[in-house]
Fold these 2 entries.
Entry 1:
Amino acid sequence: MSPSSSATSAGISPDDHFQSPATMIGGDSCDTSSSSAASRTQAFHFSSGNPRIEETRGVMHLFSSDSVSNLPVGRKTLVSVLGVPNHMTYADFCQFCASFIQHISEMRIVRTDGMEDRYSILIRFDSQDSTDKFYLHFNGRQFNSLEEEVCRVLFTVDVQFTGYTGTLEHTRSSLVTPTEQPSCPVCLERLDQDMGGILTTICNHSFHCSCISKWTDSSCPVCRYCQQQPEKSICIVCQASENLWICVICGFVGCGRYKGGHAIRHWKETQHCYSLELETQRVWDYVGDNYVHRLIQSKTDGKLVELNTHCLQAKDGCGSCGCVDSGISEALISSKVEAIVNEYNELLATQLENQKLYFESLLQEVKEETEDEISEAVKKAVSQKLLKLQAKLERCLKEKMFLDDLNENLLENQEIWKAKILEIEERERKVLKVKDDKIRDLEEQLRDLMVYLEAGKTVEQLSISDGIKDATILPVPVESSSGSKKSNNRRKG
């Protein structure tokens, strides 16, 4: 998988690392074995390369995952790892399969259609035994213990390159002569499979696996193309998704002047004069009304070229005024470099000062907002406290009125009960007096009765005795009868 493998002309791969379309399934041969093999395979469309510069498309035919045997018949030393999460970098995957790195001849990173947040890896091993061991060891195994995603390994029948999009100049520049051997951009050694495995990134740049495993970033070491594509941005104001610019100072995302013009409106409001165009990654200076770059990335081949600027001394630009001389002196070059350095130093100082003022204004706004919020919170707390105190005061007043009414009623009841108590005491005295009189009457009657009974006994004894003869019974004394009459009269009264 050398860099030349990414450049296909008229839909044919220039190298022979993966099989050419002439040997792919679905050709002119229609025998029974090929048709049965096609029924046991599934096709996945893939692409690779930087879409802004060049892109290679193809189809990989894989053995079905629901085959009868774990190791299908007719398998080759080529496998495909499907659905690798984007957050796993090239170095992470190399570390994941580190025990088999010495048996890997080449690896190629591709995008699988329909999987925007994942990528796939085509791996060729040096022997069938290593391929089978890799399949049995990693198929269905988790990438790490913290995630549920598992490694899905399928044997690859064939890989077919179906198309290429890019400029003819880039295609010619990427093709190498048969005698030329490409080299690794990191260690500058030849990309020879005998010297170690070769890994081709998603942007079609090739490295040694041992070299790329030390690269901890998810971007390519050559072109800095990142496999993790950023989320689509939109204008903060009008939600537009095209012709977007982001402020390099505060991060405001707005649409261009040919859409809603919210980016330039942000500059007029905040004086943040530098904005980055998200599509081309170029920075625009609203004050100077031009780009700030001396060098930009070409859309044709992705190389850094000089930004086209108009010469101030000619109407048709540089070339007609004779200002460019191949024999320019070293002093002129040094003066230009010094002028550029001074310009960028001044630009940096100006932007730092503007950024300082901007953040100071933000701090002042935050301070004022905080003071306003504190004052509002204090006013709200005081008003709530006052309302609570007023409610408490009203409750206390109501309780006081209730207690006053209750005290007045109790005082009135006290006078009434005093009168009733005096009346009851007088009644009790009268009852006691009547009871005492009755007791005295009963005692007198009892005494009279006792006297009467004693007198009767005495008479009976005298009548029985022999010593009394012809005697007469004397009447009861008048006093006792009169006393009884008095008692009867008193009882009647």
Note: The longest strand covers residues 152-165.
Entry 2:
Amino acid sequence: MLSRSRCFTRTFGRSISALRQSNNVLARRAASGISSSQCISVKDTLNCETRPSIFQIRYFKTTAAHRNEVITVKTPAFAESVTEGDVRWEKAVGDTVTEDEVVCEIETDKTSVQVPSPAAGVIEELLVPDGGKVEGGTPLFKLKKGAVGAAKATPAPAAEAPAAAAPPPPPPTPAAAGPIPTTMPPVPPVPAQPIASKPVSAIKPTAAPAAAPADTAKGARSEHRVKMNRMRLRIAQRLKEAQNTCAMLTTFNEVDMSNITEMRKVYKDAFLKKHNIKLGFMSAFVKAAAYALMDQPAVNAVIDDTTKEIVYRDYVDISVAVATPKGLVVPVVRGVEGMNFTDIEKAINELGEKARKNELAVEDMDGGTFTISNGGVFGSMFGTPIINPPQSAILGMHGIFDRPVAVGGKVEIRPMMYVALTYDHRLIDGREAVTFLRKIKSVVEDPRVLLLDM
């Protein structure tokens, strides 16, 4: 009896010790994430009763429901002068997009607004059809955040034509073809009656196979229709308004580009090295126009038709016409009267880069007191530009061509450019227009006029 009591006491003590050790082990394993449950069994060697002890640890998982959240993206707010636009989709339903990736583009009558994705995810639904009209705040599409788009299934090859894909069988070997025949094949029997024949006229002609589409399309006179975008419609409207409103008249002159060409040739490498930008001819004409506009303020003025007043401006903001695939845009270089050649070149380059990337905002094209259009980059020799309303005048530059000119009583070959000034004759008289154009000619031909303020 005493022996059994000692055995029980010894076994119970060992069990308590083992349980404590197992608790420590379980705590360490739970912390390291090895196992979610452990079973400890203690058995004495003296045929004592086995008593299992089970310990279980529970874990909690955080939900990922917020990753599959579906959000609705709306049309961004437009500028004050823009009320609506047309949607052109870059993505389709089921496409995977990353954060800030462009999903669609809204084309207004002045510029295009890109709509990026606010987060990474999958396009679930397009709420506006392609080409649809939207206003600020209109729902555009639904985006499932954090989802992965399913790969688009590719059509499986047809199972009915395995022979087309299988390689042709190899020719049989002589052993497999059998022995070579040694006797002549039997002669076919002669028919008892002659074979019936038909006259050629009784044979019906069969239809010729259809010719290839390329052959039928050769020489075809086809046409197709393309909807005018909003920017092109707005340009057409403004140009027609200018024709209907302004009393437009154009005066011409020619500019000897010898000095400015020589100056550019001498300093273009040093200019590029210092300012990291190329020296062009536009800066010379923009600066010359600003100088002439300050000298002839009527060309820089505008008629306010509502109040029947003339508005004179003591600042010069020049719109530079830039051709884009969607139409002509006119970003504005502001405060030209206080700029030098370097400032003008940097501003034009920055605006031109934004126009090529379709990143021009309405603010970049709003305003402007005078416009310069350079058709010479396309090889234009002569032309009459149309006023950009509500402005009162526009300068047209053209190509530089070597022509014979009289210089000091002698005929010389000089690089010449024709320039044209179209102006509103309601406000600008011929004297101001001709004087303005001659001032531009003198500054471009000899930039030292700017230094001497002549």
Note: The CA atoms of residues 68 and 145 lie 5 Å apart.
